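Each field is set out as follows.
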Amino acid sequence: MLAVCALVMVLGVLLQMAMPEGFQLSTSEARSPRTTQMVTEIHSRGPIRLNEIMTANGGVLSDASGEAPDWVEIANVGSGAVNLKGYVLARNAKAGNVFVFPDMIVQPGECALVYADSRLQAETGEELHAPFRLSASGDVLMLFNQADVAIDTVNIPALPDNMVYRREDANGWAVSEEATPGVLNTEENYRALTTVMDGGDVQICEIMSSNSRFAPDENGVCHDYVLLRTASGSGADLSGWYLSDTMQLPRLWRFPEGTSIPAGGTLLVHCSGLNRLEDLMHLHTNFRLSSEGEQVILSNAAGQPVDRVEFDLIKKDSAYVRSGDGSWSIGEPTVP
């Protein structure tokens, strides 16, 4: 096996030197040891390249439906804008179920995310979903340009939950726990996605973690909840924002499109674990709160945490309430 791997690496180097722009689709470029197809890796010399891959998403990133599918990130590392229309993602050179990018522009330094969950969605301006899944035990991914030439290929190793395989430089990949979905793989971007920003206008203002009689949902059932407001009293659009109960997974649950806080008002979110997104007046997260105490994290649409609140044991039907000066105390819920 070591000899085979060494041969694959040598072939990859030779092909890269001979064909820096990639190689044409062919039925002979892939081989199938066990159940995973291996390819001769080609690393993109152009501005568009594979950048980051997650094959065992345990809640690092949620899609618009509140699910946590695996995902692939494409990056533009060049100096000019590129239209991805016609670029193709495939698991091998003979694959029939491929993902073709729609008409979409990626600016220099920008990334495009594609969820790999066997639910094809490839429309301009919409969330992107590939018609295939990726195996956490190891897989292959190939990127083709509009001429069906493979310009970037990678053999993905087995990945533990919530770990990514990401590009470290032009030719090198590494397994990492520092996922940066939607942005380039830099330490600065990782810190931005894991450090709470100061001075955000949207705030967590009330938490109830043992609720039996306040703020019933659309079916008359009372759940734990999180109440949000804006510090300025103005309205706020929360489309694509995130809510979570752990800093390790700050993008655990995503607000659906059209979610907003009215001017001078609040927004209540039921922490029921039911993951209901259809009724914007009665939103339900995919997680519950612990009455023993934990934390609540609010992140903006870019994935940056804007507010984080830690709480301890809260007795039944009492709330953790934020006052006007920013201090917190246990008291009566402010919602009926």
